[in-house]
Specification:
single chain; 466 residues; alpha+beta; six-stranded antiparallel sheet; two-stranded antiparallel sheet; 17 helices; 12 strands; globular; DUF2252
Length: 466
């Protein structure tokens, strides 16, 4: 936090004040921390080496999987950015903030958004990764998201003008939709969601619209557990088993095998206790058949993640994904004390607070050695962004969609009137965020090159898996 923003008190929702009064409160904060301050990024004295941060965040991970983590991160500056949330969190702590805090995603990059099915089987567009969720300055999510578009745009070889425009679209969309949410009641905001089919209809590219509509149709027809069962399993006698597909899906061996064998039932039973009674009754119809380790997204590689297979007496499967829950990278970089000592509970409650609809089986658990986890369905009609086929106009539309989804998520735990008052009705905020995003994309490239140098020197191990 900079000297300019230290005097700004944390701003929380005031239910007594009118919307107009709260809007003016935001406008008064803008006079103390002008919007143009958010364009600032300069590497600072005693900035911690990004390679050292990566090594630090690898402590406690499954050592044999770390070479996969670094191999994935070396693919491009964008892949590095996805795995380096801790680096940016440490950097954002040295940028100006308004003092308006709310629940953050914490790792708010463009690949952590997408479509998925609600428990009512409606397809919505929303944030879908909350491993780093924690209270903090709302600007941090906006800046990480906007910078991710510049970095991804460069990866796609789009022009500098296009890349900066993507970041601008993120911030402008956030501003416009936050203003819309500021006019709604708290209950109306809570009910709000973004219909995926309607969102795609807003797109101007007919060819890309048809591509996405086919993906939605496929996702809506997709019965995840049945198809996954046919593809991923075999029977060992009466017991269903998940097929190994190393190095990304495998049954644990050695000490890890002993740990899973000893802790599997404990972890599963504690997970059930975190669910509401009706979900406990539903899952009581199923028995745990198998557990495997699964290597997941760039930022989580090396953490203990996997799949558990549950079967009913009549042979219907449910696949649950468990992910190790570690301390948020934001903790230690914000002057806010976390509410939850259980890291799995932190993630689940943050997700429920920010998402328009969360997975019906979302819950938390731990083992006997105080290792924390959260659990959800393996897949549920997910529609992920396909950057490889996007043209600049598609990327710009996607930037607007992500800015909208982030505004909706922030409006649930923050005060949209105060935030809208702070941003105002000009382009200053979008201009500042787009400037910051370009500067931080440059920093990210420097950090990426430092990682490549560390790999060449043998400081970071890499695998042959790509």
């Amino acid at each position: 936090m900079t000297e300019d923003s230290k005097h700004i008190a944390e701003t929380t929702f005031n239910p007594i004040a009118s919307k107009a009064e709260r809007y003016e409160k935001g406008a008064s904060i803008r006079k103390k921390i002008p919007l143009e301050k958010h364009q600032e990024w300069n590497s600072f004295k005693n900035r911690k080496d990004p390679v050292d941060i990566l090594i630090q965040t690898s402590e406690g991970r499954v050592e044999s999987l770390l070479p996969i983590r670094y191999r994935r991160m070396m693919e491009s500056p964008f892949a590095f950015y996805r795995g380096a949330a801790a680096v940016m969190a440490a950097d954002l702590a040295h940028t100006p903030v308004s003092g308006i805090n709310l629940q953050l995603c914490g790792d708010c990059h463009l690949m952590n958004f997408g479509g998925f099915a609600t428990p009512e089987r409606k397809l919505v567009f929303d944030i879908n990764d909350f491993d780093e969720t924690f209270p903090g300055p709302w600007e941090w999510d906006v800046k990480r998201l906007a910078a991710s578009f510049v970095i991804a745009g460069r990866w796609r070889k789009f022009s500098s003008k296009n890349c900066k425009e993507f970041a601008w679209k993120v911030a402008d969309s956030y501003k416009r939709h936050m203003l819309d949410y500021s006019k709604l009641s708290a209950l109306q905001i809570w009910y709000a969601d973004i219909d995926l089919a309607e969102l795609i209809e807003l797109g101007g590219d007919k060819e890309f619209k048809e591509f996405d509509q086919k993906r939605i149709k496929k996702a809506s027809e997709y019965t995840a557990h049945e198809k996954e069962f046919a593809k991923m399993t075999y029977f060992d006698g009466a017991r269903a088993r998940i097929k190994d597909d190393p190095p990304l899906i495998f049954h644990p061996n050695g000490e890890l095998e002993k740990q899973v064998a000893k802790e599997g039932e404990i972890i599963h039973n504690r997970y059930l206790e975190s669910l509401s009674e009706e979900k406990q009754i539903l899952l009581s119809r199923y028995m745990l058949h198998d557990i495997v380790i699964k290597v997941v997204g760039v930022g989580s590689v090396g953490t203990l993640c996997g799949i558990s297979l549950l079967m009913s007496a009549t042979g219907e499967p449910i696949f649950l994904q468990f992910k190790e829950a570690r301390k948020s990278v934001l903790e230690g970089n914000v002057k806010i004390k976390g509410k939850y000592s259980h890291q799995g509970e932190r993630i689940v409650m943050g997700q429920k607070l920010m998402q328009s609809a969360s997975d019906m089986f979302l819950g938390w658990t731990d083992d006997s050695k105080n290792k924390y986890f959260y659990i959800r369905q393996l897949r549920d009609a997910k529609v992920k962004p396909v950057l490889e086929v996007m043209k600049p106009k598609n990327m710009a539309e996607y930037a607007k969609a992500c800015g909208w989804a982030l505004a909706r998520a922030h409006a649930r735990s923050g005060d949209p009137s105060v935030i809208s008052g702070y941003i105002g009705d000009t382009d200053e905020f979008a201009d500042a965020v787009s400037e910051f995003s370009v500067l931080y994309a440059n920093q990210n490239e420097l950090d990426y090159n430092k990682m490549l140098d560390a790999i060449k020197k043998g400081k970071l191990p890499i695998s042959t898996e790509i």
